[in-house]
Amino acid sequence: MNELLYLNVMEIRENLRAKEFTAEELTKAYLERIDETETRVHAYLSVLRDEAISAARAADDRIRTGDQDFPLLGIPVAVKDLLCMKDTKTTCASRFLENFEAPYDATAVGRLKDAGAVILGKLNMDEFAMGSSCEQSAFGPTHNPWNLKTIPGGSSGGSAAAVAARSCVVSLGSDTGGSIRQPAACCGVVGMKPTYGRISRYGLIAFASSLDQIGPFANNIQDAAILLGAVSGHDPRDSTSADEPVPDYTDDLEAGVDSMKIGIPKEYFIEGMDPEVETAVREAIAVFEEQGAEIHEISLPHTEYALPVYYILAPAEASSNLARYDGVRFGVRKKGDSTFGSLFGMYAASRENGFGDEVKRRIMLGTYALSSGYYDAFYTKAQKVRTLICQDFKAAFENIDVVLSATAPTPAFEIGERLDDPISMYLSDILTIPCNLAGLPGISQPCGFTSGGLPIGLQLVGKPFAEKTILQAAAAFERATKHHEALPPL
Ligand code: GLN
Q1: Which of 390, 398, 397, 430 is CA-nearest to residue 267?
Q2: Distance from the alpha carbon of residue 218 to the mean position of ligand 1, in angstroms
Q3: Which of 80, 122, 193, 468 is an active site residue?
Q4: Model's pTM, two decimal places?
């Protein structure tokens, strides 16, 4: 592997400033890496070669003139294909949006550009972000760089796999029920879902609007912190974006965890958890203790309801958000206008043709939960239980700073293994979903490997807007263990 591909964001910035290499050379090294790995990994849905080279040249011009105070200047990044990027295909990994070119930049994409980043391309995902394996992509699955027979996790599987394969430095994904943290765990990288409202979702194709959040993937905590800082902040175009100041997330990463109070929820060591995952998490707890953290057993008593609540609320919101794909306003219209019989027939034929099976399943689940006569029994009740789950966290956070658990109950599974069994697929997110329901920030970082060489992820969840605290804790763990330095056998 080209030695430029080992560098982290700070090292790249220093080298660019010292004129050790140019942003163009770096970008070309990444484009070559993409050519070398993509036939096996398939993390990208589109590679924006010409745009990337021009952005790199623009970065080099800035560096030459000394105008270089941008957090991601010349850094090759990539984004999940549900973030709009002007004049670029944004497919959401759906046949329905196969030809959709976004007319504007998502705020997060605009902020990447403003920060000087070089956007290499758009990354694969489960269709409309519904899935945990990246197998629901209409354009074929992504493969896990650690073992190409296994899934990279999902739905942001391309974002995780590209970072793991070193075919971009950092990436953006989105997380509605675990779609950043679970693939990060599967691919042995860092992935963070910030607090609901931390990053503007303007230009993010919506799945479940009360849960969706954009976040960073990186090979180490500092890179994740830099990317988070670059894209965070209030945006008048997203009414749910929070008007909270954005701190420098890279400050105090050295602060350590001395006397930090870490809560271990007893409900998170669930039946069916892989014993190697449990062992790795228990070892991680011991590492935190050695570093001076106080470990407390806690209870989040409504945890068992999180998955069923999510599978009412998320599909309900999805059924509403996806109503706009009708073959008229958005989506490829099914050919054969004269045979549909009615306008509704044309919508139905286009939706039947455009959406994949999992998306259809979610729309049906959601429409059912919202239908008259069932609304109170399902939707309203789920909202009430969601409140109880939020209250569990609130009570726990009166005595602790961070909640620690495994990210996913099992490591990456084989491609195809859970495809015919939606419930077993849904169980992949059992430990990540509560954090979305409560709107809290959560991070996954590597904490070891199975005997078969697959990465295991550790999850840390914090109080609202306490991204700094969990980054600090994660950085302390990273320094103590160095699991993040391992490279996949690609
Ligand atoms: N796997 C979960 C689902 O399919 C979460 C997806 C996500 O976070 N976007 O709904």
Answers
A1: 430
A2: 20
A3: 80
A4: 0.98
